[in-house]
Write a structure and sequence with these properties.
The protein is mainly α. The protein has eleven helices and five strands; from the N terminus they run ααααβββααβααβααα.
Length: 277
Amino acid sequence: MCDATRSGRPSILTEKKVLDISNRMLQSPKKSNRKLSQQVGVSYGTAQTTLKKHLHLHPCKITTVHELKPGYSAKRVACCKWFLDFIDCEGEDILDITFFTDESYFHLSECINNQNSCVWCAHNPHVFLESPLHDEKIGVWERLNSQWYCDNIVYPFIAQWKEDEIDKAYFQQDGTTALSVYMSMALLDDVFVDRIISKTIWPPRSLDLPLPHFFLWGAIKNSVYSNNPHTIDDLKMAITEYIWNVDHAILNVVFKNTVRRVNKCLETSRGHFEHYL
């Protein structure tokens, strides 16, 4: 048996074009397939096949993170070293009575991912999802000032503590202006004395280190929006219910993850580290 003569257009992909595509992608790895095909003079499909099958390249999503300005990496490393010393000195159980502060907005309507939201039909039904121009939302410490913070957050918070917590607890102070002015700090100094983790210790723009950011807010939103709350009261109730259901076993996992993140930050010493976890 012999291979029959093939019909159709011969392949225009040559070793020279593969090398050209490889060089162009090395110089500009963010280049789109469409632009690459126009520059090299091949079809979109040929360019995509060359990237995947010949060059073994794959599209990788870009993660948006906070900008680390000069000097921030050194502050992050210093904070991580302090944290490990803090654990060694006080023991891991100290995290049970270490309180972290932060804020986050919860919108009544969850954000829609247009890329993943679709309707499978034989013909386009042109489905629209109407949403208000300004979505209703609630935020922790919204319209916050120092007096409101002390009267409605700090005092009720401390009133729930046991005696040993008052004597031993640590408090991580958020950098928000209303929380760090004289009145607020004077109150915290009276309660915690030298057990305040201030913004001089905690590095700026480090959302990959605090517990609320890498665990709490995401976990709450995943739970809250799965039940599709229709009113602000429903949203508040769902947030409160989730927080009350966070048990000690979950916190133990989060504490271990915190130590793991701190160690990874020290290992890299180059700023962002979450892609190494």
